[in-house]
Amino acid sequence: MLIRNRTLDLSSISHLAIIIIACGLAFGIGWVATRDQGFSYAWLLGGLGTALLFLRWPFLPAVVIYPILWIFWAYSIPGIGGIERIIGVLGILGMALLAVRHAESHMFALPKLVMAGLFILFSAYWISWAFHPDLVRAQEYMISLTARIAFLFVVYYLIRTLSHLRLAVILLIGTSLIPASLTLIASLIFGFGFSRDFFANQTAMTMLGSLGAAIITSANFGTAPAMLLLHLYPTLKNRLSKIALALTVLFLLGMAFASQYRREILITIPLLLAYLSIDRSAGLRRPALGLLLISVLFFFLVLLPFSTVLQNRLDNETQFVVQGTEPRIASFLAGVEAFLQSPLIGYGPSAYQQAIMPILGLGRRSFEYSPYNVFIWIAVEAGTPGILGITFILAGIFREAIKFRRQSDGVEQWVLRCAPALLLVIVVWFTFGNAWELSLPWFLMGLILAAARLAQESTRDAATA
Q1: Can you list the alpha helix ranges (DSSP code H) found in 279-410?
Q2: Distance from CA of residue 409 to its chain's centroid?
Q3: Is 407 helix (H, G, I), strand (E, B) or coil?
């Protein structure tokens, strides 16, 4: 039977072979990730279904599936694991399917600096693994890293028109408002930062369930959608619309902090708003300064005086921060020491805990051995080449955004004007948290690169017209 559509002709045996290989790849990754034969068949069926989506609507998975599902990043599906693994496998499946589209294969060509960074980063991890072949979780770790890199390619490739780009941004902002709204409701019932209060958290888990708690937790990452939304401010002419937009941005930023009192959020909000107030090309000096003043006053006049959870955390942890014995600071310092002991090769994928344990000593709680800085995490596991790789990736994306920022118009200009702020958000996530294994930073990077490519194509088409 011949299956034909505008996107791809499946009558070719070679095309069918590639589809089978892609589904087999998704099947294999699912089996390795789950170690469960029953769910492996589910992966296979899911791969076939996704293949049909890619064939009929080639832009759909990256543009629609990810923004809708990213709010469930912390929810673990029984037998399969986190939603990030599913998204990653779909990304690899999509890469194999997109290889069929020979006529548009040139679109795989990412900017040279970004490609160099991806190659160096990936190679650094493989080389480090070769020198440390006995690591227990290395295989799972490398699958996850491969999936994230493939996902960046897929997002970059599948956002092929301005309408695709606009849809992706709107969905990302829209789905960010869902966990933010639920966070407000939970905060009014249990208090801001309720998940840091054991008894309030247990009560909330009982009422909301693990899925509801996971959705609320994802409000931590509302800062990136808030930046995208704020960059619409200069395009609005109605004063009421500007006020409504500013309040929505403030709401996303406030709920990002209220969901858990994350350190990176506390640092991100003033840092981003201060940056936007001095970035002339953003045109956001007045609203950024206003939001900065409101957020600072809200923190010191409302949250700090009336939040028992926040006061207890500040009272109990300040002394340990000053002494350098706070678990996150101690883990970072131990990571630096471990890196200096093996600066070229590192200790291998998933080896951070193993590397710092002799330095911190045995008998600590598990979270005290966790990496709380992505850059030192990469440095410990993949050495100096790993750090060089991630630096090239971020620098290459920043360079592309700046290069085409003034040449763009419309929705791609919206994303490119926001790009430095989005990259600053990613750097803060990487500096003060464990966002390395999440897909959201990679999605944002793919979004920026796609916008730069669309701006470049528009400029080229205008020049040849």
Answers
A1: 285-298, 304-306, 308-323, 327-341, 352-360, 374-405
A2: 26
A3: coil
- Say how many CA atoms lie within 13 Å of 142 toward its Cβ: 19
d(CA 136, CA 157): 34
Q: Which residues contact 126 (CB under 8 A, 6 or more apart)?
A: 142
> Given this model, what pLDDT does residue 32 score?
53
* Residues β-bridged to residue 448: none
Name which of 390, 382, 444, 344 is nearest 117 in CA terms: 390
pTM of the model: 0.81
Q: For residues 55 and 44, what is the distance between their CA atoms, to the nearest angstrom? A: 17
The domain ranges of the chain are: 1-109
Largest separation between any pair of C-alpha atoms in the chain: 72
350 phi-psi bin (left φ>0, alpha ψ -120 to 50, beta other): left
The pLDDT tens digits of the residues spanning 390-409 come to: 999 999 999 999 988 877 67
What residues contact residue 172 under an 8 Å CB cut-off, 6+ apart? Answer: 67, 70, 224, 225, 228, 443
Helix axes 285-298, 223-230, angle to 10 degrees: 140
Residue appearing with tokens 């070679």? 14
Kindly tell me the sign of the dihedral angle through the C-alpha atoms of 41, 46, 47, 52. Answer: positive
Cα–Cα distance, 261 to 265 (Å, whole number): 7
Q: DSSP assignment, residue 81?
A: E
